[in-house]
Amino acid sequence: MKLYISADMEGITGLADHTHVDSAKQNYERGRLIMTNEVNSVVTSGFEHGCTEILVNDSHSQMNNLLVELLHPETQLITGGVKPFSMVEGLDETFGGVIFVGYHARASMKGVMSHSMIFGVRNMFINDVAIGELGFNAYVAGYYGVPVLMVAGDDQAAKEAGSLIPGVLTVPVKETITRSAVKSLTPAKASELIREKTALALQNIGKAEPLSPPNQPVLKIEFANYGQAEWAALMPGTELEEGTTIVRFHAKDILEAYKAMLVMTELATRTGFC
User: Fold this and answer.
1) Which among 9, 124, 144, 170 would be 20 to 30 A from 86, CA to CA?
2) What value does the mean pLDDT of the chain take?
3) Number of domains in the chain
4) Are residues 21 and 154 in the same domain?
5) Which residues are CB-contacts of 188 (< 8 A; sequence separation ≥ 6)?
6) Strands (DSSP E) along 35-168, which ranges?
């Protein structure tokens, strides 16, 4: 079986604030080492429990965080900046399952470093269903008929996954105190737990169901300020809802909606004064 892993950083064990996930800050090198070891826990367990091929996609920020020289030697890694499908680059119908590692809660919700793609997003919707990165990525997997087997991250990401994805196994490795403080397992304990849960997720693969996206979905993104919405609405096919900071886009399928989201959020970051 082929296994796909999307690895974010904010939900990794012990990482509590931006100093752990920003490459310019003092705790980043510690954070990326813990992240690499956490991904290795999934990969190692995967190969031990029937996976024949495992593809890991580095999915945080500039997407070059994982230390490739420390990964399991049989791992295949997608790393680096601009990707057509960002956090789910390389995912297709040939995979038997998906695992999300280091995931966090969506914007405007409780959870350590909670956000949705950029900090200028307040809410994101597919057909009025509120989603974040976790939900959007699960929808793309569902488009290909691939189930999300497991989500590892903070307790609020686990709660979000459980309410959205049928049959998903969750592994909360830290408990949210505030958006920048957590009560965490140690990396050693978290890795042990993740290995056990990965094995269980692979054994119970028949119980997980793909999160099927709607046909011709309507994507809505609510931005934090009007300037960001104005920039996002420059993308052809979008509509800025009167009297709001919500930009709407009618997509032909979830893949087009995902690309539209990437373009809209990238445009929104060009707002110079908030």
Assistant:
1) 170
2) 97
3) 2
4) yes
5) none
6) 53-58, 76-78, 97-103, 121-126, 129-130, 148-154
Q: Which of 94, 53, 104, 97 is nearest to 200 (CA)?
A: 97
Kindly tell me the burial class for residue 178, based on how many C-beta atoms sit within 10 Å of its own C-beta (0-12, 13-18, 19 or more): exposed
pLDDT in tens, 243-265: 999 999 999 999 999 999 999 99
Contacts of 14 (CB under 8 A, 6+ apart): 20, 34, 174, 182, 184, 185, 186, 187, 190
Q: Of 42, 54, 51, give the one whose Cα is nearest residue 11.
A: 42
Q: Which of 20, 72, 115, 250 is catalytic?
A: 115
Contacts of 73 (CB under 8 A, 6+ apart): none
Give the other-Cβ count within 10 Å of 47's Cβ: 16
Inter-CA distances, 188 with 15, 40, 75, 157, Å: 14, 12, 21, 21
Query: Do residues 260 and 199 share a domain?
Result: no
pLDDT digits (tens, 9 = 90+) for 108-151: 999 999 999 999 999 999 999 999 999 999 999 999 999 999 99
pTM above the 0.85 mark?
Answer: yes
Residues 185 and 264 in one domain: no
- Establish if 128 belongs to a structural domain: no
Active site residue 18: no
Q: Known binder of ligand: residue 60?
A: yes
Residue 127 lies in a domain: no
For residue 69, say whether it is annotated as part of any ligand binding site: no
Let me know: does 140 contact 126? Beta carbons within 8 Å: no
Q: Is 250 annotated as a binding residue?
A: no
